[in-house]
Amino acid sequence: MMKKLALAAGLWAAGTLLVLTAPAQAALIFFDNRADFELASGLSGITEDFEEANLAVGFNDFTASPLNSATDDSIFSFGDIADGLAILSSDDSDVVVLNGILGPTKMVGSGNLDALTILQLSPAVLAIGFDVFLFEPADIAVSVFDDNGLSLGSTTLSGLGEATPNFIGIVSDMSGIARLTIDDLRNGGEIVDNVTFGNAVAAQLPEPGTLALFGLGLLGLGVAVRRRGQKR
Fold this sequence. Notes:
Elements: H1 2-21, E1 28-31, H2 34-41, E2 59-63, E3 85-89, E4 95-99, E5 106-110, E6 117-125, E7 127-134, E8 138-145, E9 151-160, E10 166-172, E11 177-184, E12 190-198, H3 208-231
């Protein structure tokens, strides 16, 4: 009887250990509607709209990459950009700033139309959403990475319009989003505006496999206890 109890206890412990250590793969959910993104992420409002840029309507100018809260030049002052966000060009070229060219607001992107626009987040977050503006209709590829540079996933949005806000929202169920690349597949250039990011995402339930392993451990303990009671 003692051996059965020991075996059952070991089975329960193994089940518990698997619950704690079993790897789970992060999943990304992509949105093309800001309202749906805000509902899923728990975030609302705009974190960064680049409206602090010192730039007249109808003009564009360039600022050094990365553009972040430490930028201090003729366009942006120190602290103008939200903490934790940086905008870069994939080829380390300058970041372009537009005012009233693709839309009525100020926006930013890679200064080289052949390069990718990169959004970098430090610390990593569980959700980010933004508007993409294009100079001509195109397809957009968005790739997402964690803070170790590992890919979390990607998506392609087809037939996006020019000079109009095309919303892209991403929510991760587990791994933090540290970096994402935006690629206009026609090399026409991609410009971003109205960035929202943060961690106000509802807690995720354990995966079904994890629950099953935990249940197996409890089942083993229950069987042993029942057999012990029958022998008394």
